[in-house]
Amino acid sequence: LLPLLLLGTMALGQPRDVSPAGAQCLEHECFAVFWAARPFSAASEGCERGGGHLMTVRSTVAEEAIALLLQNRSGRLWLGLSLPPSLPCTEPSRRLRGFRWVTGDRSTDYTNWAPSGQRCGERCVTVSRELRWEERRCEEAADGFLCQYSYGGSCPRLAAPPGVLVAYTTPFGARGADFLALPPRSRASVPELGLELRCDEDGESAGPRWGRDAPGAWPCEVAGGGCAGPCRAEGGRPRCSCAEGAALSADGRGCRSVCEGSLCQHHCVVAGGTFVCMCFEGYRLAADGVRCEDIDDCASEPGPCEQLCVNTQGGFECRCHPGYEEVDGHCQRRSPCHKARCEQLCEELAHGYRCACGPGYAVDPLNATRCRLYCNATECPAVCDASGVCDCPEGFVLDEGEKLCMDINECESNFCPFNCTNTAGGYECHCPHGQYLRNNNCVPILDEDSFSGDSEPVPHTPEPSRPPPAAERLHPGLLVAIAAGALLSLLALLALGLHLARKRGGSRGSVDYKYGGPREKELGLQPVPSAQK
Fold this sequence. Notes:
Blueprint: E1 22-25, E2 29-34, H1 40-49, E3 53-54, H2 60-70, E4 77-82, E5 100-101, E6 124-127, E7 133-136, E8 144-150, E9 155-156, E10 167-169, E11 175-176, E12 181-182, E13 187-190, E14 195-200, E15 209-211, E16 231-234, E17 237-240, E18 246-248, E19 255-257, E20 267-271, E21 274-278, E22 283-285, E23 292-294, E24 308-312, E25 315-319, E26 324-327, E27 330-333, E28 345-349, E29 352-356, E30 361-364, E31 367-373, E32 379-381, E33 383-384, E34 390-391, E35 396-399, E36 404-407, E37 419-423, E38 426-430, E39 435-438, E40 441-444, H3 476-502, E41 513-515, E42 525-527
Parallel strand pairs: 4-8
Antiparallel strand pairs: 1-2, 2-8, 3-8, 4-5, 4-6, 6-7, 9-12, 10-11, 10-13, 13-14, 14-15, 16-17, 18-19, 20-21, 22-23, 24-25, 26-27, 28-29, 30-31, 32-36, 33-34, 35-36, 37-38, 39-40, 41-42
GO molecular function, one term: calcium ion binding
Region (Disordered): 451-472, 505-533
InterPro entries: C-type_lectin-like (IPR001304), C-type_lectin-like/link_sf (IPR016186), C-type_lectin_domain (IPR051505), CTDL_fold (IPR016187), EGF (IPR000742), EGF-like_Ca-bd_dom (IPR001881), EGF-type_Asp/Asn_hydroxyl_site (IPR000152), EGF_Ca-bd_CS (IPR018097)
């Protein structure tokens, strides 16, 4: 049956149609039966006048309440179900057959329809002694109706001495002595003691409680005099008392902490029937015993911090001097490398840092934060990744078998115009003294100011002009000798020019080239910055 929070049954009779013939209450709900012949609309208005609505039967708990209210009395009672105007007929395939609760919804965990097909004239529902639901015409009068009232809580049944009658009246008009709990605004009457009580919704307590307008306890034998603490008779009069650390409230029945209403800024602690104010950590109680003052933790000796201390409300903060940072609660000198963006390594200097590289790498001259492959010998170990792919610096070729980077001898390609010097990863072209390299050719230095390099420019010292000597008569044999000598000089000059053409080269350091492919294939040349030498 109902979980007996179920709160009582009234004797049935034939009351006036404005009063219920019986009522059942749960902790938050009451159900009442009215035996009065009325159509559906009038029945609904009767429930609303008492603060409720026609009963919704959504579970077996509500069904059991109906069974207790009917007590096998025959007749049909209106339930809170009606067909909305949008539906002309019932829909038997649906759980509520298209009907809707008077609360505006269709949610339910329970139905108990009598067998029937589609009905088009019956737009309301009644329940019988057999607890079956049946469709009926709304304008017809049923034998009575069932109302439902909902509340936020209830007052318990008053404990009274045996033989002392307590009569209750609910706000919707039900009367009786067998209720186990009563909704707010219910009244209790104890004629033998001349006591009238009321179930009030007390905002200070967890829910409704019994009370009265007059302060102080009523007779202790009825619900403990209404006291929140012990009830004792002193001098023939009942009196409430409270536990240590609590005091009676204004009505003389409730108990409140002695800290209620105290002016303590932080904490209130009950001690010996009174209270003491206390403060949070980092504060101390002011002279007035109520306010709390901040303690300057940084003023203590020795100070709580390693370097700098900043006091805050209720505490303090430790900080470090510029150039230091906190690590595990201690100040450590901040490395200039902590913000460096070096690709591999960072080296601290007296006034900063510089990026460095690991073995097999050198700092990129175009970007000092990055590293590139580097080898300053004729062969170096190749740099290989986890997948086995190896790489070599520019100017080197990979020996797959030995995993070595071998220097390419670019001078074997004979592309320098005069002289070539091979270097690790590159080469140098040179020109003879008095010439410089331009567009891979050695050209004479015509102006000392137009060239600065390793080759010495040829000096050009002009001679003063003079008039030609007077013509002299020469011997014919002498003329033949002069002609032969001139011819020999011309041949010597041609031979010297050919020799110089074969030895054309560039001045040291003017422009470098390096070979970019394997030695076995045709050589290809590309410019190389001097930083890669």
